Design the sequence.
């Protein structure tokens, strides 16, 4: 049976770098703190889903500046400290997103996984509505379908699951627009793939989206 790898596409929660569209409402530091909370929540949920492999695909590079083959490291850069200070639990694998737009980064992760006969679930850290049950349902869907998607109300998607790679799903996509999910589904239809569409969810990108955070988080 194919293994299912859950790959979390994640930005380091650095002020002015993560969740920049929330800065007008929260300020740069509070937006970064929320990004950190979303990231930790996503990782905890991913691990609780008990899927075959959980991978954090990070940017900026959490390994940059690390020397290998010696007992000492070069001068530690601020990005390394951010990743190290998150206190992420054990049980996750790490990879680097690399250069390019979001499509290029997700394409590399997808190709890497499918080349070794793994199914892949791609998610970000923006959708706390991706519960353990949703992740498990998505993994189950890939046993019967070529792809699975969780659309978002803004026209994007919070999860894309694939058993095989095709560049059309990532190349030239107008990311952060309301056309992304529809275009992705259109490409998969032209490929002749069977697709399971799960319930539409809210992600947290704009100030108006803050209402969809868990009430217990106290962010409005």
Sequence:
């Amino acid at each position: 049976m194919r293994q299912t790898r859950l790959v979390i596409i994640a930005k380091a929660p650095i002020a002015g770098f993560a969740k920049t569209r929330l800065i007008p409402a929260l300020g740069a530091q509070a937006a970064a703190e929320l990004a950190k909370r979303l990231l930790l929540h996503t990782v905890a949920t991913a691990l609780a889903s008990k899927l075959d492999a959980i991978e954090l695909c990070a940017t900026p590079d959490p390994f940059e500046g690390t020397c290998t083959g010696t007992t000492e490291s070069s001068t530690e850069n601020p990005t390394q400290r951010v990743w190290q200070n998150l206190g992420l639990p054990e049980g996750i694998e790490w990879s680097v997103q690399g250069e390019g737009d979001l499509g290029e980064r997700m394409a590399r992760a997808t190709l890497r996984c499918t080349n070794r006969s793994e199914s892949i679930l791609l998610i970000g850290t923006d959708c706390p509505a991706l519960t353990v049950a949703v992740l498990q349902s998505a993994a189950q869907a890939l046993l019967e379908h070529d792809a699975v998607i969780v659309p978002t109300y803004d026209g994007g998607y919070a999860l894309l699951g694939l058993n095989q790679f095709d560049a059309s799903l990532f190349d030239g996509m107008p990311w952060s627009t309301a056309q992304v999910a529809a275009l992705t589904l259109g490409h998969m239809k032209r490929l002749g793939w069977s697709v399971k569409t799960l319930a539409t969810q809210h992600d947290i990108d704009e100030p108006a989206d803050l209402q969809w955070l868990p009430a217990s988080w106290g962010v409005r």
User: Anything to note?
Assistant: The beta strands are 4-11, 53-59, 93-96, 119-123, 147-151, 157-162, 195-197. Residues 28-48 form the longest helix (21 residues). The helical segments are 23-26, 28-48, 78-84, 102-115, 132-141, 180-191. The CA atoms of residues 15 and 64 lie 19 Å apart.
